[in-house]
Amino acid sequence: MNIINAKIYTMEDKIIPNGYITVENGKITAVGEMSGFAVTSADILDVNGAGVYPGFVDAHSHLGMWEDGLGFEGDDGNEATDPSTPHLRGIDAVNPMDHCFEEAYRAGVTTVVTGPGSSNPVAGQLAAIKTYGNRIDDLIVKEPLAIKFALGENPKGIYHGKNEAPETRMATAAIIREQLYKAKKYLEDKQKAAEDEDFDEPDYDIKCEALLPLLRGEIKAHFHAHRADDIFTAMRLAREFKLNYVLIHCTEGHLIADKLRAEGADAVIGPLLCERSKPELRNLTPKTAAVLHKQGVSIAICTDHPVIPIQYLPLTAGLAVREGLPYEEALRAITINPARICGLEERIGSIKPGKDADLVVFEGDPLSVYTTPNMVFINGFRVI
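The structure assignment produced for this chain is given below.
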């Protein structure tokens, strides 16, 4: 397939005013100016000057974990019976038949990071998945993508009601630290056993096994943290265990932007349209994205679906523009930035040969409340 006469927002630091994109076997194989286009196939789609963008990426959601319109029967996001559950795999709970998946791709959101909620300090394994299809195994971009950790009010609120730890922020951090130390010792013992036949391999521990890719640096830690002190706790834990990490929500990040810049932290900001529903959100402002960007912090914007419905991801990016984030940076915050922050930039996030052909066609402004995509392609297949 050849898409021609397109204004291409590559998100590779350039816009092609009038260009073409060639797609073969679900991948982008060529991108360039129309002046360099040579017809190689009769399969041509002329978009007549419309804008073509990479598929939008939501770096933090719970899509498919809380099914739309259902109560307990469709609530599979929090296993609130054990504060340390690194072995839980989000893909075992995601229901891609939930109609919110269709709402996602109809809004141009083609890839999401989804997984467990924040009731447990060590919550489980996140996955990056595409939004079109009916079998989760066929949608996976990367799994596990990251281990989800939660700080702040959510674990406290859940376990206070049970009269169990953690009832304090101290206990939340201690539970995370204890589990990571156990996994670190488990990894060391496995390595010793591999090197020394006289050293017994440790008994299989599914929780520790789940954390080995994190400790080896193969995946990242995603820390749910709203308040500034919780953000600093996340960074402290990451330093202690030499973890690659991402700050999720980062609600008070605008108050400590200089510290985040100095640490080289990545932040996934959002949700931006929600109410201040709990004390740790008292400093919530849609200006956070602009403040952090101005300080040189790499940011992405998320919905935290179902807190904000997934289809409003581009709208929240538009809100960030209204509050001072440069327009192109808002586009980057829902395309290449989340792809890079999540370690997926080799496959998604920009329009470049070799990447997945996830493409969204708009005749108007994609960040406007008035605009919806004319066409959406996922892996080169047209879904609308």
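Interim note for the steering committee: The mean pLDDT is 96. The longest helix spans residues 169-195.
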